[in-house]
Design brief:
By secondary structure, this protein is an alpha+beta fold. The protein has 2 domains: about 5-100, Phosphorylase Kinase, domain 1, CATH 3.30.200; about 115-295, Aminoglycoside 3'-phosphotransferase, Chain: A, domain 2 (Alpha-Beta Complex). The chain has helices at about 5-15, 60-75, 115-130, 160-170, 210-225, 225-240, 245-260, 270-275, 280-295; strands at about 20-25, 35-40, 45-50, 85, 95-100, 180, 190, 195-200, 205-210. It has a 5-stranded antiparallel sheet with strand order 1-2-3-5-4. Helix 3 (about 115-130) packs across helix 6 (about 225-240) and helix 7 (about 245-260) packs antiparallel against helix 9 (about 280-295). It is globular and about 55 Å long. The protein starts with 5 loop residues before the first helix and ends with a helix. The relative contact order is 0.13.
C-alpha cells in the first residue's frame, strides 16, 4: 500500500489497532523513511523507519531515546509528537520502527521573516527551560570529530577552516547544562497559522550548552537564506532567553556546529530541493563558509 510494505502495515495495524487506508511518503528525513498514515476512522499517525545507514545500526538507541523524550514532553507545552509503539529490532516491522502521533501543520522552509525567527526562538527557549528531573538525557555528542577536521576540496578560503580546526583543538569551554533538542532547525518544525504547531525528530536529544542548539538552527538558516538570517535568529533567541553570552564560548560551539557539516553540507540540500527550493550544492557550500567567517570574526 503506497510506500509501505505489507509487513510494515501489519505491524502498524496491530500496534495502532486500526486498519490503514492511506500511506503517503513525507518529505525530508535525512536519516529515516518517514510515512504519514491514515486509519479507517480518519485518525492519522507518522511512522519512522530507520532504513538508512549508518543510523540503522544505531536505531535501538535513537528510537528508544526519541520515544522516552516524547513521553517526558507530554507534561510540557512543547508541541511534540506522542510515542505510540516501537519495534527497536525491526523483527516485526521489517526495519527498526517508531510509530507516533501526527501533528498538524506544514514545513515552512521558504521564509526567514522576523515573525518566523521570533517564533522559532520562543519555542527553543521553551525547550531549554524544560526540566527533565532525574531522567536527564545523555550528554551531547560533538558532530565535529577530529577525523572531520580536513579542509574540504570545495573550500574557497582554506585558512578559515584551519582557524576553525585550531579553535576546536582548544579545551571545551565551561557551560551550564541545558535540555537540548540537538537537531533544532526549520526542517524539524511544523507551522500552522503563523505559529509552530509541531517540533519533530527527537532522536538526538541531549544535555549540553544551549548555544549548541542555537548554533545549529543558525547554521541551517544561513545555508537556506544567507548569513544574516542566522544572525537574526541568534539575536532573537538571546533577547528572549536574556542570554548574557560569553563570546569566546559561543564561537567555540558555533564552530563545532559548522565543522559538523563536513566533509560536505550537500546531504541536507536535497530535502530542500524536494520541498521546492532552488539551492545548488555550491550555494550551500559557499554559505556555510560565509557563516564560518561570520562566526570567527564576531566580537
Amino acid at each position: 500500500m503506497g510506500s509501505a510494505t505489507e509487513r510494515e502495515i501489519r505491524w502498524v495495524e496491530s500496534a495502532w489497532q486500526r486498519r490503514i487506508t492511506r500511506v503517503r511518503r513525507l518529505t525530508g528525513g535525512c536519516t529515516s523513511t518517514m510515512l504519514g498514515l491514515t486509519g479507517h476512522d480518519g485518525e492519522q499517525a507518522v511512522l519512522r523507519l530507520m532504513t538508512k545507514e549508518p543510523w540503522r545500526r544505531h536505531a535501538a538507541g535513537l528510537l528508544s531515546r526519541e520515544a522516552a523524550v516524547q513521553h517526558q514532553l507530554q507534561r510540557s507545552s512543547i508541541p511534540a509528537p506522542r510515542s505510540v509503539a516501537l519495534d527497536l529490532s525491526g523483527d516485526s516491522a521489517g526495519a527498526p520502527a517508531h510509530l507516533m502521533s501526527w501533528l498538524p501543520g506544514r514545513l515552512c522552509l521558504t521564509s526567514a521573516a522576523d515573525g518566523i525567527l521570533e517564533a522559532m526562538a520562543q519555542v527553543l527557549v521553551s525547550i531549554h527551560q524544560f526540566a527533565p528531573g532525574r531522567d536527564r538525557p545523555r550528554q551531547y555528542q560533538s558532530w565535529a570529530a577530529p577525523d572531520k577536521r580536513v579542509v574540504p576540496p570545495w573550500a574557497q578560503r582554506r585558512q578559515l577552516w584551519h582557524q576553525a580546526f585550531e579553535l576546536l583543538d582548544q579545551p571545551v569551554p565551561a557551560y551550564a547544562g541545558t535540555f537540548l533538542h540537538r537537531d533544532f532547525h526549520l526542517g524539524n518544525l511544523l507551522w500552522s497559522q503563523g505559529r509552530v504547531s509541531g517540533v519533530v525528530d527527537w532522536v538526538e536529544t541531549s544535555w549540553g550548552p544551549a548555544t549548541l542548539d542555537v548554533a545549529h538552527a543558525a547554521t541551517y538558516l544561513a545555508m537556506l537564506h544567507g548569513v544574516e538570517a542566522g544572525a537574526r535568529f541568534t539575536n532573537a533567541y538571546r533577547r528572549r532567553a536574556d542570554d548574557r553570552h560569553d563570546e569566546d564560548g559561543c564561537r567555540y560551539w558555533n564552530v563545532m556546529d559548522i565543522v559538523g557539516y563536513l566533509p560536505d553540507p550537500v546531504k541536507v540540500v536535497q530535502p530542500w530541493r524536494d520541498s521546492g527550493l532552488s539551492i545548488s550544492d555550491d550555494l550551500a557550500r559557499s554559505r556555510l563558509e560565509q557563516r564560518l567567517e561570520h562566526v570567527l570574526r564576531a566580537h
